[in-house]
Amino acid sequence: MSGKLPSDFLWGYATASYQIEGSPTADGRLPSIWDTFSHTPGKIKDGSNGDVACDSWHRWGEDVALLKFSGAKAYRFSFSWSRIIPEGGRNDLINADAIEHYRYFIEALIKNGIKPVATLYHWDLPQTLHDRYGGWLNKEEIVQDYVNYARTCFRYFGDLVKDWITHNEPWCVSVLGYGTGVFAPGHESNTEHWIVAHNLIVAHAYAVKAYREEFKPSQGGQIGITLDCQWQLPYDDSPESVAAAQRGLAFKLGRFADPIYKGHYPTVVKEMIGDRLPDFTDEEIAVVKDSSDFFGLNTYTTQLVQDGGDNEIQGKIKYTFTRPDGTQLGKQAHVSWLQSYPPGFRSLLNYLWETYKKPIYVTENGFAAKGENVLPVDQVVQDTDRVEYFQGYTDALLRTVSEDGVPVKGYFAWSLLDNFEWADGYDTRFGVTYVDFKTQRRTTKESYQFLKNWFSENVEA
C-alpha cells in the first residue's frame, strides 16, 4: 500500500469532563445529572462515581505532558456546563473561576503544539436545569439555555478554540438516558427519548447558527456534531438481512444525520414511530439542515444484523457477533458490545462519505482489553489486544483515505486515560494510559507507543 495521511491530518486523543475531571465542588461547580445518577445506589456497576476519577481538574498538567510525549497533534475534551454556568440557565451566573481554569488549560495545549477540539455537551447536564423544567424534555427552555451556554463558550474560548463539537452522541443521551434508563437521568419510556433526541438536534442547530452568525466571522473556526454508529453488516445475503442492516443504520444514525445533513427524518423511522416522533417546524428544519461543517463519528465495532425482534429503538432488528457458521466476527473486548472488525470501519467511512458528502473526523475509536481492572499493572501495560485493534483500525483508516479517496481529516483514539466509564464505573478501561485510581499514578501502555510510532510513520511531515 502506498500513500500516507496528509500533513494536516489531526490525530490525538479524546476524553470527557465527567469521566476524568473529578473535583465535583471545586471552584464553584454544582452537580450535573451524572453526579446525581452515579450517587444513586444500584446505578453504577461497581458502586463508584466520578468524584475523583482521574483527578484531571488538578492533574491536567500530567495530561498535557502525556499528550505532548505521544506526538498527538490534537486533544478532544469537553467543557463541564455545570462548571461554566453552575445552575445552567441563561439568567444564571457565569463562573469566572471555571473560565480562567479552562483558558489556562487550553493555552497550555496550544503552547505544546496541541490543537484544542472542544465538545460543548458530553452528557453532564446541570442538575438544576433538570429539576427546574425537565432538562432535555422541555424544548422551549433547554434550547435557549443550551445556546446561551454555547455562546458563553464561544465568547470566552473562541479566540483559542477553532474546532467545536456541539453534542457527543445524542443517541446515547436520549436512548440510554430517557429510553432504557441505564444512563443519567435514568428515565425509562418509549416516548421521552424520541422527544429528547429531537430537542438535542434543535439545540445543536441553533448553537451552530449562533456561532456562524456571531462568532465565526471574527474567530474563523468550524463547528459540527459527533454521532455514534457501528457498521451494520447483513447477517447473510438474504434480502431480509440486507434490508435489516439498512434499517439499522436509519435508526442508529440516520434519524440524527438525515435531518442535519439532508433536512428530514428517514421515512422508515417516521413510518414505524408515527406521531411519537416530533415534527420540525418550518423554521427549525431550515436551521437544522446543513448545520454541521463536518461529520463527527464515534465508532468502535461492527454488528451482524438480522430482521426480527420487537425493539423499535433498533428498528426491529437483532444484533449478533456470531456468523452463520458459528465463528465470531472478531476479537472480544472486556465489554459485551465490542468486537474488533477493521473492514467494517472502512465500510462505514465509505458509506458516510457517499451518503452525506462531508469531511469526516473520527472523534472516538478504541478498545477495552479484558481484565485490566484486576490484572497487575505490569501485565496491563502489555495490552496486546488493544494494539492489535489499533493496528487493524489505523490500517483501515489509511486505506480508506489513500485508496478509496474518502476525506477523513482526523482520528481521536478513546482514550488518553483509563477513566470513569459511565455505568460500568472503573471496571472497564479504554485508556492507552493505565491509571491507578488509588494513587493517581499514570503508566503508559504499549498501545500508547504503538499509536505514537504509527502516526509518526504514516502522516506526511
Detailed description of the structure:
This protein has 16 helices and 13 strands. By secondary structure, it is of the alpha/beta class. The strands form three sheets. An eight-stranded parallel barrel has the order 1-2-3-4-5-7-10-11, surrounded by seven helices. The chain has a three-stranded mixed β-sheet with strand order 6-8-9. It has a two-stranded antiparallel ribbon with strand order 12-13. A hairpin with a 4-residue loop joins strand 12 and strand 13. It starts with 9 loop residues before the first strand and ends with a helix. The mean pLDDT is 98.
Concise synopsis of the structure shown:
Helices cover 43% and strands 15% of the residues.
List the helices and strands and how they pair.
Elements: E1 10-14, H1 17-20, H2 33-38, H3 56-70, E2 74-78, H4 81-84, H5 96-111, E3 115-121, H6 127-133, H7 139-157, E4 163-168, H8 170-178, H9 192-219, E5 222-228, E6 231-234, H10 239-261, H11 267-273, H12 282-288, E7 295-298, E8 302-307, E9 317-320, H13 342-356, E10 360-364, H14 377-380, H15 384-402, E11 408-413, E12 433-436, E13 441-444, H16 446-458
Parallel strand pairs: 1-2, 1-11, 2-3, 3-4, 4-5, 5-7, 6-8, 7-10, 10-11
Antiparallel strand pairs: 8-9, 12-13
Helix pairs in contact: 7-9, 8-9, 9-12, 13-15, 15-16
